[in-house]
Amino acid sequence: MLFFSYFKDLVGREVTVELKNDLAIRGTLHSVDQYLNIKLENTRVVDQDNYPHMLSVRNCFIRGSVVRYVQLPPDGVDIELLHDATRREARGG
Amino acid sequence: MNHCNALTSLKPDAVALKKLLVLLRDGRKLLGILRSFDQFANAVLEGACERVIVGDLYCDLPLGLYVIRGENVVLIGELDLEKEELPQHMTRVSAAEIKRAQKAEREATDLKGTMRKRMEFLDLD
């Protein structure tokens, strides 16, 4: 539940989601759910030329299971807070 | 009942039925109208077609009513009707021609693979 809460706090920020099939999509985080499925708005594909079928896609739903990375703005993370929360979660379980 | 909240806003309302693009794990691109979904991202696509793209050629193969198992879904995208779905330089061709192009691409990839295998003894990288 930790990362679900963390992503909920990031709603409205610009992120780049890199998928396991190497597709990378930049967009505004619209919503996230318990499976870490992601909905992005105002999307642009990073390497557009290799993905012509994505040209007119501006909003998309991404299944959580296919995400490799979620790239965040440098000021998107309070690293100490996240570190502490993770330690607590690991201890408490 | 657990709901796939992120998907909820993609479900079309009665007035505007949106054409969606579904990317599958095997690389296929399906287009159609989303009629149903659940918490696993299982989906029902009406009037589905598969958009096959080989280089600058493309073809839409009609499929009809499809039920997609959620584990195969990579992405569901909403196509902006005011924008071009594909770049201008791409040409629409017939099913027969796209199948020929797919075969040619497959053979080229296989050839590239065998050539690489033959060069392996050189131990370049």
Q: Largest interface: which pair?
A: A-B, 28 and 34 residues
Order of helices and strands of chain B: HEEEEEEH
CATH topology of chain B, by name, is SH3 type barrels
Number of helices of chain A: 2
The coarse overall form of chain B would be: extended
Structural class of chain A: alpha+beta
Strand ordering within the main sheet of chain B: 5-1-2-3-4-6
Question: Structural class, from helix and strand content of chain B?
Answer: alpha+beta
Q: Kindly state the percentage of residues in helix of chain B.
A: 10-25%
Low-confidence stretches of chain B: 1-5
CATH class categorisation of chain B: Mainly Beta
Amino- and carboxy-terminal Cα gap of chain B: 53 Å
Mean of all residue-level pLDDT scores of chain B: 86
DSSP summary, beta strand count of chain B: 6
For the biggest sheet of chain A, the summary is: 5 strands, antiparallel
Strand order of the largest sheet of chain A: 4-3-2-1-5
Keywords (chain A): mRNA processing, mRNA splicing, Nucleus, Ribonucleoprotein, RNA-binding, Spliceosome
GO molecular function, one term (chain A): RNA binding
GO cellular component, one term (chain A): spliceosomal complex
Subcellular location (chain A): Nucleus
3D structure, described in words:
The complex is a heterodimer of chains A (93) and B (125). Chain A is 24% helix and 37% strand. Chain A contains 2 helices and 5 strands; from the N terminus they run αβββββα. Chain A has helices spanning 2-9, 79-92, and strands at 14-19, 24-32, 38-45, 57-62, 67-71. Chain A has a 5-stranded antiparallel β-sheet. In chain A, strand 1 and strand 2 form a beta hairpin. Chain B has one domain (3-93): SH3 type barrels (Roll). Chain B is 23% helix and 38% strand. Chain B contains 2 helices and 6 strands, in the order H-E-E-E-E-E-E-H. Chain B has a 6-stranded mixed β-sheet. Strand 4 (57-62) of chain A pairs antiparallel with strand 5 (73-79) of chain B, so a sheet runs across the interface.
